[in-house]
Amino acid sequence: GAGFIGSNVAEYLLERGDDVVIVDEMNDYYDIRIKEGNLAVLRQLCPDRKRLTIYRGDICDENFMLDLFEAERPEWVCHMAARAGVRPSIQDPFVYIHSNIRGTTQLMELSHKFGVKNFVFASSSSVYGGSDSTFFSEDESVDNPVSPYAASKKACELLAYTYHHLYKLNVSALRFFTVYGPRGRPDMAPFKFIDRVSRGMEIQQFGDGSSSRDYTYIDDIVDGVVRAIDRQHKYEVFNLGKGSGTSLREFISLVEKHTGKEAIRRLLPDQAGDVPYTCADVGKAYQLLGYKAKVPFEEGIRRTAEWYRNVYLKTPSISEICPETQANGMGRAPSFAELTRHH
User: Fold this and answer.
1) Angle between helices 4-15 and 218-230 (to 10 degrees)
2) Is 312 part of the annotated catalytic residue set?
3) From 149, 163, 180, 215, active-site residue
4) Is the separation of the CB atoms in 33 and 318 below 8 Å?
5) CA-CA distance, 229 to 162, in Å (whole number)?
6) Cys staple from 184: which of 33, 58, 97, 191, with CB 3.0 to 4.6 Å?
């Protein structure tokens, strides 16, 4: 709830009048001051501690979570807590098994026991691995994950089906496609590029720049998450993306345009674990949720660059954080990858 997507979803729910309970372990995957800043935004929006309750703790802690469910009795669970990042998961797979698989199972166990009406959780476009499809569809077989992170998300989808089958828990798994925007994660390419180009620092370009990603603006993702919360489905997996890709080359040129600076590029070989391109088939989410992304990529980059100048740089507690030290010191930036396929 204190992270990028979770805090934006919480903000939307509070603004429309819902009561929100946030649980976050405030880990150091990236600088804790960023999450503290997100919580401060939410508390300023909603000073009423009955409507917004914030718990600091690990969703894997059984006693802590049982006490929380008994005290709060949530009717809807929106589970955005996870260890993110493709490359750091290769470096340290065990923390992904703990946070993602164990954490999700723990929440579903409590949700079925406490009669939760709808369980919505974050999966990832990473589950598609090195798919050869032009558009990634939920109907595809995704049994070949290329990173521990992707494997952990696929495992969560399988366990979610099991909980639906055994206990009739309503579950929607949301496969997010590279989410970016104001308050975005510092280890992700959109933030890193805007930050480094603005500061006149070198950016790393992996591959020849032809790799492509379906970048999705945060407001569109929040819209999709809330639609999934509001519509109970027995068990469904949904892609939440923009539905069109942007090449790395075009991405960098848009960052240059909206920061007013020229990028200094260092060309590097391809990175293990990343997928060469992603593009969401969002037909199912449109049909069952009424979801349709509205923010074009250039407009999203413009808004993010504007936030960087007008908010981020003017918030000393956050702007002094060095992005190069975030995410275990590893830039995730999956958009850079160019994997060679072996047939």
Assistant:
1) 60
2) no
3) 149
4) yes
5) 20
6) 191
**Pairwise CA distance, residues 323 & 319, whole Å:** 9
| Reported pTM | 0.92
The residue whose two tokens read 């164990």 is: 102
The neighbour count for residue 53, using CB atoms within 10 Å, is 15
Question: What are the start-end ranges of the H helices in the chain?
Answer: 4-15, 32-45, 62-72, 86-91, 93-96, 103-113, 148-167, 189-198, 218-230, 248-259, 283-289, 297-310, 316-319
Token pair for 84: 């993110």
Locate 209 and state its tokens.
Answer: 């720049």
3-class SS of residue 266: strand
189 Cα distance to chain centroid: 13
Alpha carbons 68 and 113: distance in angstroms, whole number: 13
Residue 15: Cβ-neighbour burial (10 angstroms; 0-12, 13-18, 19+): exposed
The edge-to-edge listing of strands for the beta sheet with 118-124 is 76-79, 118-124, 171-176, 235-240
Task: In whole angstroms, give the CA distance from residue 178 to residue 40.
Answer: 25
| Residue appearing with tokens 């790799």 | 211
Give per-residue pLDDT as tens, 216-260: 999 999 999 999 999 999 999 999 999 999 999 999 999 999 999
Angle at CA of residue 334, ends 329 and 276, nearest 5° = 145
- Residues ≥6 apart with Cβ < 8 Å to 305: 194, 198, 255, 258, 259
